[in-house]
């Protein structure tokens, strides 16, 4: 496990890089939310990041995060993002635990989330996951189906659609993923035109290896794990 001082140091470093990337794109860095991806990390490591000022955390598995989030529930200003594929049988738990579900990747899941939200009389904030590069190993809507799917999901009660999320292909060179992020920005622009009643405010794109490119291309959320917590065991 890495030491608290390292986490504070790493966070400061990532924040500095976010500011610099925003500056290069003539953007206000306040538009960018840093989500610290704490998957596989224990609650005490999350707490160390919290003590260093971090408030947004990302988890990819409902089962794994349940104990962690419950354990840290006294920290009332923590904001939890679900960033991994959500199985239908975990929806109720996910809705209870998470503030934003970034990984809505099927109409079926959107419909099920809508029903849970309605039954509980609340609104669930969601992003639509897009598989820009069409990788078979990844979840998400294809760019081609996205416009139609967005219309259907926008009409579902109980969901607050807030934008798009993508996981870029793994590449040794961060520049290689720029076209993917650029495409995301175009997809959002298209949706802003065809579905102006939705506030497409978020573009969640960029991880440890490419978050600066993400910000240059318009990311409002970057999801960073290793650069903060170190390599996962
Ligand atoms: C693990 C993960 C991240 C963070 O990845 P790092 O390379 O550790 O920054 C971001 N997004 C998703 C969807 C992930 O699963």
Lay out the secondary structure.
Elements: H1 4-24, E1 33-37, H2 43-51, E2 56-59, H3 62-71, E3 79-82, H4 91-97, E4 100-104, H5 107-120, E5 124-130, H6 146-154, E6 159-166, H7 178-194, E7 202-204, H8 211-216, E8 221-224, H9 226-229
Parallel strand pairs: 1-2, 1-8, 2-3, 3-4, 4-5, 5-6, 6-7
Helix pairs in contact: 1-2
Residues 37, 39, 60, 83-84, 167, 207-208, 223-226 line the site of pyridoxal-5'-phosphate (PLP).
Q: How would you summarize what this structure contains?
A:
Helices cover 42% and strands 17% of the residues. It is an alpha/beta fold.
Describe this structure in words.
The chain has about 230 residues and is of the alpha/beta class. It is built from nine helices and eight strands. The protein has a single domain (about 5-230), classed as Alanine racemase (TIM Barrel). It has an eight-stranded parallel beta sheet. The protein is globular, with a radius of gyration of 17 Å. The model has no long low-confidence stretch (mean pLDDT about 95). The protein binds pyridoxal-5'-phosphate. Pyridoxal-5'-phosphate (PLP) binds near residues 83, 167 and 225. Pyridoxal-5'-phosphate (PLP) binds near residues 83, 167 and 207.
């Amino acid at each position: 496990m890495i030491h608290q001082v390292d986490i504070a140091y790493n966070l400061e470093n990532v924040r500095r890089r976010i500011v610099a990337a925003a500056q290069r794109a003539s953007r206000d860095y306040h538009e960018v939310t840093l989500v610290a991806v704490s998957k596989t990390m224990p609650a005490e490591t999350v707490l160390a990041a919290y003590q260093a000022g971090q408030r947004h955390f990302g988890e990819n598995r409902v089962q794994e995060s349940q104990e962690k989030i419950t354990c840290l529930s006294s920290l009332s200003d923590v904001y939890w993002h679900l960033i991994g594929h959500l199985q239908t049988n975990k929806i109720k738990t996910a809705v209870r635990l998470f503030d934003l579900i970034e990984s809505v990747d099927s109409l079926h899941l959107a419909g099920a989330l809508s029903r849970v939200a309605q039954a509980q009389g609340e609104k669930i904030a969601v992003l639509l996951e897009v598989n820009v590069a069409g990788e078979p190993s990844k979840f998400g809507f294809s760019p081609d189906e996205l416009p139609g799917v967005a219309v259907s999901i926008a009409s579902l009660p109980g969901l607050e659609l807030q934008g798009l999320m993508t996981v870029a292909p793994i590449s040794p060179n961060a520049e290689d993923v720029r076209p993917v992020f650029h495409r995301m920005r175009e997809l959002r622009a298209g949706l802003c035109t065809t579905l102006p009643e939705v506030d497409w405010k978020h573009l969640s794109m960029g991880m440890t290896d490419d978050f600066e490119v993400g910000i240059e291309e318009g990311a409002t959320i970057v999801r960073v794990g290793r650069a903060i917590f170190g390599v996962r065991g």
